[in-house]
């Protein structure tokens, strides 16, 4: 009898987090990143990079994907626009900074996928 109780408790311990996660995504409170429409967005992402930076070239496809889909995203060369890089405290590149009305809301350092960048528009990571 005790073994049966242990097995049931173990199964519930494993299943509960999985069920709660599934329920949170299907409850309607979260909109998948792919459902974001570019026209509904209030801010834009600034993609800080440089032509000589290998990591920036690696991050370029995500930038291009969002740009081609019509998302508000702007590429900023830190060498030719150092004042904007200073304004947002860019110390390493590549950096993606989500800005609403000139104020930084979120930031991702390094390379990021297009889906992760889309989540930034919604307030997620």
TrEMBL record:
Keywords: Signal. SUPFAM superfamilies: Thioredoxin-like. The keyword Signal applies. Pfam families: Thioredoxin. InterPro entries: Thioredoxin-like_sf (IPR036249), Thioredoxin_domain (IPR013766). GO terms for cellular component: cytoplasm. The keyword Flavoprotein does not apply. This is Thioredoxin domain-containing protein. It comes from Bremerella alba.
């Amino acid at each position: 009898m005790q073994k049966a109780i242990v097995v049931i408790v173990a199964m519930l311990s494993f299943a509960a987090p999985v069920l709660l996660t599934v329920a949170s995504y299907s409850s309607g409170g979260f909109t998948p990143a792919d459902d974001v429409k570019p026209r509904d967005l209030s801010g834009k992402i600034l993609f800080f990079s440089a032509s000589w930076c290998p990591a920036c070239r690696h991050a370029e496809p995500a930038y291009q994907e969002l740009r081609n889909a019509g998302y508000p995203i702007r590429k900023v060369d830190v060498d030719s626009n150092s004042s904007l890089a200073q304004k947002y405290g860019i110390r390493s590149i590549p950096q993606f900074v989500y800005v609403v009305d000139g104020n930084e809301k979120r930031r991702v350092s390094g390379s990021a996928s297009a889906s992760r960048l889309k989540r930034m528009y919604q307030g997620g990571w």
